[in-house]
Amino acid sequence: MAFDKEMLGLRTATPSDMRLACRAGEWTNVTAGLCGPYAQANLAILPADWAFDFLRFCQANPKPCPVLEVTNMGDPLLHRIAPGADLRTDLPRYRVYRYGELVDEVLDIKELWQADLVGFLIGCSFSFEAELLAANVPVRHIELGTNVPMYRTNIACQSAGRFKGPMVVSMRPMLARQAIQAVEVTSRLRAVHGAPVHLGDPSLIGIKDLTKPDYGDPVPLYTGEIPVFWACGVTPQAAALASKPPLMITHAPGHMLVTDIRNEDLLKDW
Amino acid sequence: MAFDKEMLGLRTATPSDMRLACRAGEWTNVTAGLCGPYAQANLAILPADWAFDFLRFCQANPKPCPVLEVTNMGDPLLHRIAPGADLRTDLPRYRVYRYGELVDEVLDIKELWQADLVGFLIGCSFSFEAELLAANVPVRHIELGTNVPMYRTNIACQSAGRFKGPMVVSMRPMLARQAIQAVEVTSRLRAVHGAPVHLGDPSLIGIKDLTKPDYGDPVPLYTGEIPVFWACGVTPQAAALASKPPLMITHAPGHMLVTDIRNEDLLKDW
Description:
Two copies of one chain form a homodimer.
Chain A: H1 6-10, H2 15-23, E1 38-47, H3 48-60, E2 67-70, E3 94-98, E4 101-106, E5 117-123, H4 126-134, H5 140-144, E6 150-156, E7 166-174, H6 176-187, E8 198-199, E9 226-231, H7 235-243, E10 248-251, E11 257-262
Antiparallel strand pairs in A: 1-5, 1-10, 1-11, 2-5, 3-4, 3-10, 6-7, 7-9, 8-9
């Protein structure tokens, strides 16, 4: 999936511009590389009955699920990381899971909103890519204008109440010395997945074929490069499949909420 | 409150020994300085109806409330930070709050346990004191064998649902150069309150008189020393007063759960 040329304008758009473009249906594509200095966020929306188990799941699995904000029940508006953002419209694309099955992918969820829904915004690896680029570490899927490749692994998340599932990881190919730099850079960024969870042989974490990601697009490894794997905010979607809540709405992988928080703020207490 | 001489033996006791001593009613005193390399934890127990709001409160206030483990509803046993520990008996002393009032202080809560209770274990500043001592930063209340002084501040926590309240801080006096070292040491320890929230003039955070802590014991400041303040895991108790849940059971300030996790493990992802 290549970006259309509209992306060149949006790369420097403000977060508010981006969210309004989503709300108006003018941007329906992935958000990798857009609004560079601003953090992006994964989304999970659940009925209140499932919300406590899910927040426990996030607490027990902070690398894949670093929580940035939790909404008030029934309130689709954010108040902290993107004040005024509307979870029903301000992401480019959503997925709808019912009883553990992906049943739909839609551009807004206005018709699906319910008074008992709670939204969870979770840190995203796109936030650390700007830091990697600043350290001269390549980010292949940005170079190619595609979505990041993501894989289900055999790493079990800690279960919490009814929530369980495998960890999903994102992958970036790089040279060994760049992988070391990448560990140094991302280990400081705990609010956006922190240090990698694996590097090298994909089969050791249950990934059979790097050319066939479970989410996103494949990217090539060049000579001398190794794959480096980070815990990914798509993990809640794998948990949705395993845990079967009656309803769970998420972003479509790679189609994130762009927040008003700068990536550098995630280094601090905010 | 001075420690009895039994403490000298327990300073090197295992966490399991300590918990069994509490269970048997043989240790009912504060735990500062005990089981040096092992992390200690603050406790908050709430009915399930209040559990989600409380976990949201912790998520929104990670400096005072870094969550280490959440129990399954109705299960008084821990499974992660101290497998097999019993929340009803294995702390030296508990406080019982009903509708926002402190109504009792007890040595166990066997009679109070209910099928709808959920326990929250929260990181404790005692964990970083071993690191401070290792960096030659003095810890006055350990030198004196007393409980750490704690103060309610005018720093408002982020509210979450029905939970709100002021931040409580612990205070350690030290020289300016030691305060700088202390920031360096504790900023790495986010699971146990992280870097200080203030240093110097106590009135700037609403503390009128350092000699009259709201919890724990006062300690003297020596010539040239400034007070350094860390977010404290007693904050949920101040929130209990402000938020008035029908029942909230906590540890008595300074009377912590000793866990099986080493302080150094809190630096890693665990």
